[in-house]
Amino acid sequence: MIKLYSWFVLAIVLLIVTNVLGRYFFDIRFDFAVDVAPQLYSVLIILGASYSLSKGTHIRTDIYWKNFSDETKAIIDYIGYCLFFPAIGVLTYISILDTWRSISIWEKSSATMSQLIIWPMKVGISFGLILLLYQGYVEVRKLCLRL
Predict the structure, then answer these.
(1) In this structure, are residues 58 and 50 in contact, taking their beta carbons and an 8 Å threshold?
(2) Which of 22, 31, 68, 126 is geometrically suited to a Cys-Cys bond with 112, CB 3.0 to 4.6 A?
(3) pLDDT per residue over 109-133, tens digit each?
(4) Sign of the C-alpha dihedral, residues 54, 55, 59, 61?
């Protein structure tokens, strides 16, 4: 997973650098780079969210968190996941419906004249949200074992 994430970052950096160098030194704009970089970035963020959840590196207020007992931490996490699942579940459902619609109409980007298809980005976002839900389920199972 981390290697895939690294390749996404490298692709984004290369696309942006190519576009900037082309514009400033050769007076050429690369529409492909303008379209694809944000698409890769959006997939990168959603995949990063599930990876972050799996490693336990999401944000907490450590000033208060370190003073709680393990059982209190587990209860707080459980309440957080009770809010997490409905919100991310609805977001995933809407994302899957939008992805299906995008594929069926062969939706294209209107950001540049090249008008690249954008359904691969939407598939990546939907996949990332499914991974996020799955990782949330794994984390809740870990919490149940701690309680």
Answers:
(1) no
(2) 31
(3) 776 677 788 888 899 899 999 999 9
(4) positive
Report pTM.
Answer: 0.80
- Structural domain boundaries, residue 104: 2-146
- Please report where in the chains the tokens 């290697």 appear, as a residue: 3
Instruction: Scan for tokens 């794994």, then name that residue.
Output: 138
DSSP letter assigned to residue 19: H
pLDDT over 70 at 1, yes or no: no
Smallest Cα–Cα separation from 137: which of 97, 89, 96, 91?
A: 89
Do the beta carbons of residue 81 and residue 142 sit within 8 Å? no
Query: Would you list the DSSP string of 36-82?
Result: HHHHHHHHHHHHHHHHHHHHT-S---HHHHTTS-HHHHHHHHHHHHH
Three-state secondary structure call for residue 110: coil
Residue type, 49: A
For 2, 11, 12, 126, the CA distances from 6, given in Å and listed in that order, are: 6, 9, 10, 20
For the segment 68-90, what is each residue's pLDDT rounded down to a tens digit? 888 888 888 888 888 989 999 99
